[in-house]
Amino acid sequence: MMKSLIFFGPPGVGKGTQAKLLSKELAIPHISTGDMLRKAVSRKTELGRRAQAIMESGGLVPDDVMVGIVREELMTPGASGGFVLDGFPRTLEQATALSSLLAELGIDDYTVVNFAVDDDEVVKRLSSRLVCDTDGSIYNSLIDDLSVGSKCPRCTGRLIQRDDDREETVRKRLKVYHSTTKPLVEYYSKKGKVLNLNGVGPIAEVQRELRRLVVKEI
Ligand code: AMP
Questions:
Q1: Atom 2, ligand 1: which residue's CA is nearest?
Q2: Preceding omega of 77 cis (within 30 degrees of 0)
Q3: Is residue 199 domain-resident?
Q4: Would 12 disulfide with which of 8, 38, 125, 156, CB 3.0-4.6 Å?
């Protein structure tokens, strides 16, 4: 049975958090293009060097680069039983490339989960978001009684603020989302692939709602 999921929505909507939880539960890979790029930046690979300044400014890494990365991930045997794709596609060009790739892989029964929250909530969440520099766990200083520099509750890492979670960069990322990424909802709606999910509320509540929607679909 295929479990091919595309998590869609603005930055800070909780896609990454929910993708980690669901991929673990369903034992399918979590393919996060943002995480892959951050890894490349910290390892100072060729890709990382190209992506770093773009990411710090809140812009988008070129489509050909992103499509190449995702193609490689989806072609691996680990993804043959399903996947949660998180942060891709972000442009129409990426979406059409993904459609060809899915057709090539014989995957027709995929689902796009469209997470919704409003912009003010995004700014609030991202400016208080904390990320472990070692295992990538995500926390929030408004909820978790943790701050920049705290020890990660799950490992020995330290909590940091992502460079692109500063308020002015968040505003730029939101602008890019509205102008370039959000129109893809229409692209997938026409294909009848979209399920809408309210991303506001405690993590466990959103998770329950997501399971209700998606597990039923799967
Ligand atoms: P994310 O963690 O998904 O918010 O991604 C962080 C940053 O990585 C984005 O603001 C972009 O600069 C870059 N990025 C991630 N995924 C993509 C993508 N599909 N296309 C272009 N840039 C991306």
A1: 34
A2: no
A3: yes
A4: 125
Q: Is residue 173 situated within a structural domain?
A: no
Q: Which is the catalytic residue, given 3, 38, 125, 129?
A: 129
Is 166 a catalytic site residue? no
pLDDT in tens, 183-204: 999 999 999 999 999 999 999 9
Helix, coil or strand: residue 93: helix
pTM summary value: 0.91
| Residue nearest (by alpha carbon) to ligand 1 atom 15 | 34
Cα separation, 161 vs 114, in Å, equals 26
- pLDDT (tens digit per residue) in 57-92: 999 999 999 999 999 999 999 998 999 999 999 999
* Residues 88-111: tens digit of each pLDDT: 999 999 999 999 999 999 999 999
Amino acid present at 152: C
- To test the ligand 1 pocket, which listed residue (67, 69, 90, 94) has its Cβ within 8 A of the most ligand atoms? 90
For residue 76, what are its two tokens?
């691996």
The best mutation among 6, 7, 60 to test binding of ligand 1, ranked by most ligand atoms within 8 Å of the C-beta, falls on 60
